[in-house]
Design goal:
By secondary structure, the protein is an all-alpha fold. It has helices spanning 2-10, 20-26, 30-45, 49-83, 89-120, 123-150.
């Protein structure tokens, strides 16, 4: 179970892991992590009520898109681990192309949502958001390590 938590935390950087149907099924603690993230971002960004009202719907859509990407990457990794000993070179090539396409779409999504975020927040808060997301991942890792060290 601890490994599952650590793996999930590591993937927070590439995607949102907070989709409703997978998070509750895969790990019931996602809602708690999601709530921590909301509180963390709200505090760090010092959102005004108007900013918060406009920001959260855009951010939640971004998180949903990130989660889709994350699941696609995870599916590819699962396929690699399960089938790599029997795959042909053509299948590896196809997998490599799909992996590159996923990363390309990930970049396109970030560009699209960067533009949307800049319409609802001042630029300094958008940049702060990006660094705060990284800071949150670091916080989660430290929390995990702290709890792991106690066990």
């Amino acid at each position: 179970m601890k490994k599952l938590i650590l793996i999930a935390i590591l993937f927070l950087s590439a995607s949102s892991l907070f989709a409703q149907h997978h998070s509750k099924k895969d790990f019931p603690g996602w809602d708690a992590i999601k709530n921590q993230k909301i509180a963390f971002l709200t505090e760090q960004l010092s959102l005004t009520p108007e900013e918060a009202q406009n920001f959260w719907p855009v951010y939640n859509m971004l998180e949903s898109e990130r989660e889709k990407i994350w699941h696609e990457k995870r599916d590819l990794e699962d396929a690699f681990h399960n089938d790599s000993t029997t795959m042909t070179d053509a299948q590896f090539r196809q997998m490599a192309e799909k992996y590159a396409d996923i990363h390309l779409r990930e970049g396109q999504i970030m560009k699209e949502y960067n533009d949307k975020l800049l319409k609802v927040l001042p630029a300094n808060k958008v940049v702060t958001l990006y660094f705060t997301e990284r800071k949150f991942r670091s916080y989660l890792m430290k929390e995990y390590q702290r709890k792991h060290d106690k066990d």
